[in-house]
Amino acid sequence: MAILTDAKARSITLESGVIAHGGVTGLTLHPSNTKGSGKWVLRYVSPVTQKRRNAGLGSYPEVSISRAAKAALEMRSQIEQGIDPLTEKAKITKIQKTPSFEDASRALHAELLPSWKNEKHGQQWINTLEQYVFPQIGEMLLDQIQPRHIADTLRPIWLEIPETAGRVKQRIHAVMAWGWAHEYCPSNPVDVVQHLLPPQPNKSIRTTHQPAMHWEEIPNFIREHLREFEQYDVTRPMLEFLILTAARSGEVRGMTWSEVDFVKKIWTVPAERMKAKILHRVPLSERGLEILKSQVGLHKELVFPSPRKQVELSDMVLTSFLRRTKAKSDTPGRLATAHGFRSSFRDWCSVKGYARDLAERSLAHTIQNRVEAAYHRTDLLDQRRVLMDAWEAFCCSI
Length: 398
What we know:
Keywords: DNA integration, DNA recombination, DNA-binding. Belongs to the 'phage' integrase family. It comes from Undibacterium nitidum. One of its GO terms (molecular function) is DNA binding. Residues 208-388 form the Tyr recombinase domain. The protein has 398 residues and is an alpha+beta fold. It has 3 domains: 6-95, Double Stranded RNA Binding Domain (2-Layer Sandwich); 101-201, DNA polymerase, domain 1 (Orthogonal Bundle), CATH 1.10.150; 215-395, Intergrase catalytic core (hpI Integrase, Chain A, Orthogonal Bundle). 46% of the residues lie in helices and 9% in strands. It is built from 18 helices and 7 strands. It has helices at residues 6-9, 65-80, 85-97, 101-112, 119-132, 134-137, 147-158, 162-181, 203-208, 218-225, 235-245, 249-253, 286-294, 316-324, 340-351, 356-362, 370-375, 381-395; strands at residues 19-20, 27-31, 38-45, 52-60, 260-261, 266-269, 280-283. The chain is elongated and about 105 Å long. The N and C termini lie far apart (97 Å). The relative contact order is 0.08.
């Protein structure tokens, strides 16, 4: 059979009917409504199902005779190897369609963002995934992610910072559920990941037994690891400020310039940023003020911003620093945590004979006794200033 020429192809009409290519078995040109145009079709028997199939190869003249022949020969080669070309093409199309975990996360984040009243929560939602998840599985396609991949991602923080790990797990679950709903993955691997991870300690144990540095070690730790830092180093001054104020990590990381009164030497943390949802005033010592002044100019709102992204830092920043410096704790086999410095401060208060009420109010702990809380309405700011100045004097004593 003679091979189809352009002259004959340009003359194809509905009346002339289908024209065989002549050089490739099963390759034909089917006419369209317009003279000289048509569609390429390769007819073949599937080596898998043994059924006849028609594979479209594009339109003529957009797809030339030679290009159609080349594509058809490649398909014929697949058929000889026992591969059904259309089935293989469908698999490739599905892979190309399935998003990576990072792309899916950002798509879901964009959908959820308008529903969150707290803009900061929306930022934290994606920040935790950027910090803990994207470096591990961000580039993986959703249908490739298995429970072991999720477990390997969570394991480094699962016991060290369990509350954060729990939030990260919830967000991974939300992304994979979104993928399952869009038919990008057959199931949600997070549903069974608990079988690959050790049990976390219950919340009461986590609250009362945070690995803490012994209070006598703190002055030496500050001198060796926190006093020398570059101009744009935020981690060291932030950690020293956290120690001096006995504040929670989230309160310091989210601290804004509008909360600081340099004249009255007070840092006022608004209720919405406090764990107990009660406004908390922190008396600032001289060293604390000195640290704040060293941060002026880094960000118009945040006191301790991420140097690169200019957003609130992740709590993993302090954890990573304490790991790098091998900060010892009073818990065998574990390093000190940022939250543990609050326990160090509380122990120091007890040893030095400071009143329990002063220490508890400095830590912004709520009064458990309702009757006592009803009558005790002052935050004892002036008395706490004396206490915090003494704490600074001890911390900076070496």
